[in-house]
Specification:
Helix content: under 10%
Radius of gyration: 14 Å
Distance between the termini: 40 Å
Largest sheet: 7 strands, mixed
Number of helices: 0
Structural class: mainly beta
Order of helices and strands: EEEEEEEEEEE
Amino acid sequence: DVQLQASGGGLVQAGGSLRLSCAASGFTFDDYAIGWFRQAPGKEREGILCIDNLVGIKYYSDSMKGRFTISTDNAKNTAYLQMNSQRPEDTAVYYCAAQAGYGSVCPRDANGMDYWGKGTLVTVSS
């Protein structure tokens, strides 16, 4: 039973930083892809970035570069989203998602992810 659990959301002041965690169970970070996505109030879900152990890091938008980074602790089956220079428009529910198994790679968009965790809310105040 594959499960993902995102945590670490909360309130952050504009310009500040926050780190989210995604704990995975039911699979290991061997042959995997882990990505971060978000959905702001009244907006569609958008991709932030993704990492797999074949190609590497994929940014879903150039606007995410420089403010969002991803890392993994494979021994702990945990992925992280480092969020810097946050802006009020970054306020959203943040989700982690994954592919697991041989040949897993970061997909073109969120529809290519097989597993999703519950989101964690990040609120950026001005």
